[in-house]
């Protein structure tokens, strides 16, 4: 799709030239039941929304051009006369009756239908003068235009508070649109709202050209290609808000400005200390898209920690399979159960690192799962039964989230100093705090040491999943994941592939769906999770530093 959003749509008649049409983006504010107006006016007073609307519709990348706003006659009439026409934009008013008498013709044109308006804007001089086209309401216009194939994106201000309305628009067809970005909820004049931008991924719903969902049920990844692959047509202020850029910018910053440091593996790193990324879990799931997250790498990046817990039931076998199961097939799990782990005796003969020469392959010691479920118990080996021993932090956290949601001590700690000497590798992601507000569960995770290239994409996904799972069993919705990193490093061997990755444009994050029937943290199965529309760029090889 070009920046100018001019597209050719064939009418299927081979004898006639296909007409040139503009595509467009919708900008609208709507309640949860898609109410947009009352008594010919906005039902709410939201100055921030008006600022957002102005910024989106007025900004152009080319200062010589302007954007067009298309609206129904009644929406035009709802604009206070002193603000008509909306300044700095071409105002296109749709009227069938032709009853509209314009006092001023400058920056205003009328059209008798949506197709004729889009055609006009695709022809000279408007094809040159007009950069982007926005459809701005009201109900009748968006009834026709919201889910139409020419609509590339929908910028929606979602009004979460209840508001009385008499004008409505249809629901967004979520089988063809996916969130590109969504803001954290804000409150103004006692109204809770957030900004969400949806982008069109597919041509139509259910038609011959439609593309089935990409599902990931724990065993098979079934990737299909999307219709739209490039989202640079979005306004820059929206395009740049995709949260994957937080990761990409941090990687770029470390490569450009990081300290040159030695490390335990002898590979050499560039490193920065004290970094933070914030991911909004409300609408989508932060599984990075600028590279393919290969199933084996999920395990590698987790240093086998989830699986170690899994094999020993420290965390709940099915829960951990679920953790991995989203991205790992069952043969892979079996492989990791049997094979020596990367920090086991095979990679480090004699296990000189930790002095654990007697350890059985695959026994990492009292790592994450053990600490989460049996903190304080005496560790012997990975086969022992620890039922009832130590402190179950996970259940305690879930109990507090349900029954004492304002508690400021809802914490899961994998860092147990007296057990560190027994671990093959001390925990990297060592500490998580949970926070409940407005029916949402947020998690802040502290990671002492983070391999940005290989590990961090999976650390983000793992804790996003944990937050979603705990929110689910507590009857809450996921809020934010805040990822705080101590030593954030790029291995020198990863610089080149990461520079390749930095050239890629993110795609929308996938959506995570959890089986509503599963209510207990220990009874999750891989099949309880569905990852919809994960369509990453291709895989990038990065070698694991050990
Ligand atoms: N929340 C928001 O973001 C938002 C945005 C915009 C508007 N609004 C609200 O929505 C309400 C207005 O919406 P509405 O549904 O009543 O009216 P509307 O869609 O703004 O305008 C309807 C008029 O547009 C013309 N029209 C409709 N479909 C057409 C088509 N396919 N081709 C050519 N002309 C067409 C007709 O004009 P003629 O009768 O002249 O033929 C029709 O009467 C107001 O309350 C307004 O405040 C809210």
Automatic annotation (TrEMBL):
The active site is at 428. GO terms for molecular function: dihydrofolate reductase activity; thymidylate synthase activity. Pathway: Pyrimidine metabolism; dTTP biosynthesis; Cofactor biosynthesis; tetrahydrofolate biosynthesis; 5,6,7,8-tetrahydrofolate from 7,8-dihydrofolate: step 1/1. The keyword Acetylation does not apply. GO terms for biological process: dTMP biosynthetic process; methylation; one-carbon metabolic process; tetrahydrofolate metabolic process. Signal peptide: none annotated. Pfam families: DHFR_1 (PF00186), Thymidylat_synt (PF00303). It catalyses: dUMP + (6R)-5,10-methylene-5,6,7,8-tetrahydrofolate = 7,8-dihydrofolate + dTMP; (6S)-5,6,7,8-tetrahydrofolate + NADP(+) = 7,8-dihydrofolate + NADPH + H(+). Keywords: Methyltransferase, Multifunctional enzyme, NADP, Nucleotide biosynthesis, One-carbon metabolism, Oxidoreductase, Transferase. The keyword Oxidoreductase applies. Residues 23-200 form the DHFR domain. In the C-terminal section; belongs to the thymidylate synthase family. Catalyzes the reductive methylation of 2'-deoxyuridine 5'-monophosphate (dUMP) to thymidine 5'-monophosphate (dTMP), using the cosubstrate, 5,10- methylenetetrahydrofolate (CH2H4folate) as a 1-carbon donor and reductant and contributes to the de novo mitochondrial thymidylate biosynthesis pathway. Bifunctional enzyme. Involved in de novo dTMP biosynthesis. Key enzyme in folate metabolism. Can play two different roles depending on the source of dihydrofolate: de novo synthesis of tetrahydrofolate or recycling of the dihydrofolate released as one of the end products of the TS catalyzed reaction. Catalyzes an essential reaction for de novo glycine and purine synthesis, DNA precursor synthesis, and for the conversion of dUMP to dTMP. PANTHER family: THYMIDYLATE SYNTHASE (PTHR11548:SF2), THYMIDYLATE SYNTHASE 1 (PTHR11548). This is Bifunctional dihydrofolate reductase-thymidylate synthase. It comes from Abeliophyllum distichum. The lineage of its organism: Eukaryota, Viridiplantae, Streptophyta, Embryophyta, Tracheophyta.
